[in-house]
């Protein structure tokens, strides 16, 4: 008995290394590199007649959630770190810093439930009605906001550590010249710790790109390219969860799409890590 399989843009030898453990037989369908990344029309692998395998809608959903989360976590996390480093008393810091660490350890599915039970019904639905839009329980704005809340502790904790590593001699010299605390914070501490702050940003963005359960609950499963933040979208990780719920037959083209989407996700995360290393090398400050 011979089983057929389909595969994506890898050459036959490389694909066989991945799928030989699961299927045997010949290649029946091939999705090229350009079709997968550039020349497709839509992402609809479950369509029985004309399935679509263009990853664009999944990448768009991932970027919408990531950019929206960055707009939430970066300013709030940076201001929190600046407050802890320069303004908070030791007593306040002793309670607030462990609190941030606790938030970082909350399971992501709890954040997803928080999004569908509080963020969407109490914040986004009234706002959407005020602006004349309709929204569902799962939408892009809820996914971005909840992922942004999740990554605030990452930005705040790492940035605060970077600010604390700035020598006090720099602060004392600025104060001796008549600088205010605000001047020292914004013109001395922030520029001197920019390498660590950028590392916190990149790490938070990488976390947002790879987040799974929170966006599965908050953002939904509809892969589409839209600028409406109140509509449902699908990220790359959400598709991987959706496709592994028992509907993808081993060796099928949809099953192979999991590896292709996973590879694209890996490349995005790798690019962010390389960017992080580049920024750290460029802006690193060494003090004696």
Write out key terms for the chains shown.
single chain, 288 residues, mainly alpha, two-stranded parallel sheet, two-stranded antiparallel sheet, 12 helices, disordered N terminus, phosphate transport, transmembrane, transport
Briefly, what is this?
The protein has 288 residues and is mainly alpha-helical. 67% of the residues lie in helices and 4% in strands. The chain contains twelve helices and four strands.
List the helices and strands and how they pair.
Layout: E1 5-7, H1 12-19, E2 27-30, H2 33-37, E3 43-44, E4 52-53, H3 56-87, H4 90-104, H5 108-131, H6 140-164, H7 168-176, H8 181-192, H9 194-210, H10 213-218, H11 236-243, H12 253-283
Parallel strand pairs: 1-2
Antiparallel strand pairs: 3-4
Helix pairs in contact: 3-6, 3-9, 4-6, 5-6, 6-9, 7-8, 9-12, 11-12
